[in-house]
Amino acid sequence: MNSAAPETEVRPSTDIRPQSALSSDGVLLAGWTAFIGLLVAGQERMGPLASGDLAIAILLAAFAACLFARRGRWTRTALDPIVGLWTILSLGWCALGLHRQSLSPNPYDFMLYGGGPYGPIHLLAVQIGASAAYYLAVWTIDATRHGDASAAPLTASLEIASAITLFLCISEPIRLHNPSARIEAGFTNANLLGSFLVLMIPAVLAQLLLSPTNTATRAVRGCLVAALLGALMMTRSRGAESGMAIGLVVIVVAWASRIHAGKRLRRSVLATCAVLACVALGYLATSHHGLGDYLDHSRSDGQRRIAWRAGCMLIARNPLTGVGLGAFPAAMVGLGLREPNPFTRSGLPEISARHVHAHNVALQAGAERGIAGIALLAAAGVVLLRRALRLFRDASLCPAAIGGAAAIAAWTVQNMADYTAWLPAIAIVLAIQIAVVMHGDRSRAILKSERS
User: Fold this and answer.
1) Buried b / exposed e across 185-201, counting CB within 10 Å, b at 16+?
2) Which of 115, 119, 141, 327 would staple 100 via disulfide (CB 3.0–4.6 Å)?
3) pLDDT score, position 392
């Protein structure tokens, strides 16, 4: 993609298809569906770590094969410098994390191994795998000349994977004979499942509201969205639900800008959306019986505040280098913070505070990677925000990219009080959604040329 090229230079007759193996939408759809389906189903059958390692290996092999098939031709994106610098610096951050773990043993025995679920080697592999997924998605979109239809293999594969995830969500309470339990669907944690769902649901919803399709397809997508939203509520993850509320607002704003109506009606729709979003967020902030009372929703709220405090302290103590990948737990124990005992009703006696991450994506980046990590994260956010705002000029021309923007917004809101990018499935799907957003401008320009 050449983001600097003006839209008027794009012609329907121009052959922008790379002469490579990435030339058949059917092959692309089958490949992405098989991969993401394996990624989702593997959470239940193989476990998040084993399925994630297999997915990363597949991505790296596919990346090398496709790069060879493209004869080394590279599609430039505005995120290339950020992704490249982040990856190079991560090698040093990984080494620093391994060194710190050798000096201060990780308090989580099962994570002591450098390649464990939250070890430095695993986190580096997840990042490299996500980068490979990003460029494979970019090349997939770049492999056809048909505007937003170029995202169809990715969008369709995400919709199919959503259906697989829904099946796992429905079958879990039945299998465990406990319909009131928080569902996890193989993700080992309800919040992780919620994070995965907020990356999936907007992709389907945007196609439902913004893509011109037949009635039957709309009905299927509508039922899928309703069922997925029900599954999200069953996770009882306030962060994921809050993020989904914001994602819904993004999509409705895009829909309102698409409808042919007067400014007064549009403003009424947007104002109604804003009020409903505030009401939804307020309800989520004071609901969910069983997780705690209305004033102190659960002990996890207090634990999160301690994790945030630890993140700030580690940034202040290691502003230039951070503590290194995967070294947050060991470094946090060294701070000497205390927190309520989760195994007693009173919370006493207090115990040494230890968490695997800072429960905030910005604090996590700063604690592990220092100021450079925060700067690169902020730079990526600015690039994505500018791209997303340009998409709203004509939302009907790029529903897949609008869905990607809504998914990223929802994930970001959730990760203000959590951190889920360490899980391969979430990092990979997030990278795919970022790629769809980054190519949204290209889709809009090509479709405008085709319609004219």
Assistant:
1) bbbebbbbbbbbbbbbb
2) 327
3) 76
